[in-house]
Amino acid sequence: RPSSLLLSLLLSLLFVFEFGFGADEYHIVFCSDDGYRPGVEKCINSIRSHASEEITFHFIGFHPLENVKHVHFVDLAEVGEKYQLSRFFNPFYRQEKPLLNSNLPNYARYVLHEVFPDLSKILYLDADTEVMCDVVPLFHSHLLRHALPVAAVARGGVAGLLDEGKEIAKRKNIVESFNAGVMMFDLVRWRELDVTGQILDYAQQNQLTLSIYEYGSQPPMALALGNDFEHLPEKWNYLDRACLDQTYPGEICCLFHSRSIHKDWEKFSYDPWAYVKRRFLPFLN
What we know:
The protein is an alpha/beta fold. It has a single domain, classed as Spore Coat Polysaccharide Biosynthesis Protein SpsA, Chain A (Alpha-Beta Complex). Helices cover 36% and strands 16% of the residues. The chain has eleven helices and nine strands. The strands form two sheets. It has a seven-stranded mixed sheet, with helices on both faces. Strands 5-9 form a two-stranded antiparallel sheet. Helix 9 packs across helix 10. It is globular, with a radius of gyration of 19 Å.
């Protein structure tokens, strides 16, 4: 109908005017706390150095980036409160990086369809990634038909599952999963399938029973999606130092994803006693 078309056009123009980006551009989003902002800045610079087209960057964090310009900032604290991200938290305690299971940036991925209501596709990248190829062709070669909600590099089965989670994976015949540090979202399909609602069901059931998963924020998303994700080439999420050492045993490596606990930007501030202090000092006060 002409009236609906006109309304849609006016809303699109308003969106572009207010935020400076439109639905047909190339959009990449990062979610991180302040400690990982240097990694985000490094990755944005690496993307820009290879991109053949203009990229629109979004950063969901507590404070805007300081050393890169033209990045759309979204306040993570507001996102956490507005969309009640604590509903998704993993209740298990982790000795290694104990705050990771309740780290807001990890859960902001679940509500990108809400944060960016006018976008149809967006690429999510972890802060500890570095891009060495042009990302633009990736947008033209994946998630083209609104059939699947996510594209990612396939991995083995779902990690971190407990007995009930393993039974769910078996019933759904989940034969492989993916690493959630590099994900292209079809936000249209994500909304249609209500993937966030499915994730929330698993997360809240796990909070009550402590029987589905214990590791991180990815398991409920992996269980919700099952095998319904499009495969990105492995070169777009290579979890090994060989990528940077140019000993990658295959086609060119396009994205290096650091597996190290201590990132490059943390090396000068690393405190080997940090865990001991965090674990035991409260009992001494």
